[in-house]
Amino acid sequence: MNRRTEPNGARFDLRRSMRVPAQLPVVVQGKSTDGIPFADPTRAVVLSAHGCLITLSESVRLGERLILRNVASREEQDCRVVHLGEFQGGRTEVGLRFKTAAPQFWGLEQTPPDWKEVFS
Questions:
Q1: What are the C-alpha distances in Å from 56 to residues 24, 29, 78, 88, 94?
Q2: Predicted confidence (pLDDT) per residue in 72-96, tens digit
Q3: Is 103 helix (H, G, I), strand (E, B) or coil?
Q4: Burial of 49 (0-12, 13-18, 19+ CB in 10 A)
Q5: pTM (2 decimals)?
Q6: Cβ neighbours of residue 26 under 8 Å, at least 6 residues apart?
Q7: How far out from the chain centre does Cα 89 lie?
Q8: pLDDT tens digits, residue range 12-58?
């Protein structure tokens, strides 16, 4: 999601915060590529202070704005689609970036050390 390429073509990783594997229930709201509103219950499978990786049954475009709701807390975050990955079992991997960093959104008891630096 945050990969950059150096002038010589070598790739290096510029992740803004560590990723955490998870299976956290969320609901994603937005409009499909044909303009029809949807609400898709799914799971965030990778979390970070700046966004997540989910799977969606709906078709979305890069740059599209979506709303992500944490089922447990009912808190919502404005997101942008920043990655479209593999399509398997009727679902597509979708990377979402929060409008602003929100490490507290996930409600995790323990977070990676660099998530605390987001608010330093």
A1: 14, 10, 16, 10, 7
A2: 999 999 999 999 999 989 999 999 9
A3: helix
A4: buried
A5: 0.82
A6: 41, 42, 43, 44, 52, 54, 68, 69, 70, 71
A7: 20
A8: 445 567 888 999 999 999 998 888 999 999 999 999 999 999 999 99
